[in-house]
Amino acid sequence: MRATMLKNVLIVEDQQLVRAGMKTMLHITAPHCRIVEAGSYEETLARLAETEFDVVFLDIDLKSEKSGLDLLAHIRELGLSVRVIMLSAVDDRDTILSCIAAGASGFIPKGSGDETVFDRALTTVFGDGVFLPASVVGHGSYAPSPGYASHAPRTASDIGVSPRLCEALYYLCQGLPNKVIANHMGISEGTIRKNYVSELLRFFKVARRTELIIEVARRGIRVPPPPTSVPRAEPVPARAL
Prior knowledge:
The chain has 241 residues and is of the alpha/beta class.
């Protein structure tokens, strides 16, 4: 999906002036999309129940008992497939990693002064990538973007990841917990944890799920949604990659 094809976008930010500025920038990127605003945790839940959104821009600090990270965790627990891009004036590595671990598809530092940031973020996440600052991925301004890369981005299957492991990787990059991934794939939670996750960590030479997602972003690897034709076999052969 291109940014210009977005239908419904939700901005979650407790400051009205900030929401207005974001809305203006998003209308430049996606002039025909419908932009809905929410200023609190409770209002966001109501909006999510009313509309199926393509993407949510979510501020971490909602000035309430529950933070944007709490809201992100709740969205993932519900199993919603909506892409969530986090926003924060605090952009240290630990904060960004917390967002990715909770299931964010990207992170935009507030006050970056980059007028193209929303366009590039949307291009990346809807190109099956993860949008991260250079402080995390270690090069450039942000993670490689399919729309702006000098060469065609590779998919996970291009580098030798099997179809079923690509499916698991897609759900991991969406931040879904193992139980939800198991339900999507029709297998047990234990199989996800012991076979699929461990094989992906081995292949990408990382130790944790968060590091896996960052490595995928760093290498500019696309992880497309799984096709419906993928077989639902339970076992994963040793070294399936």
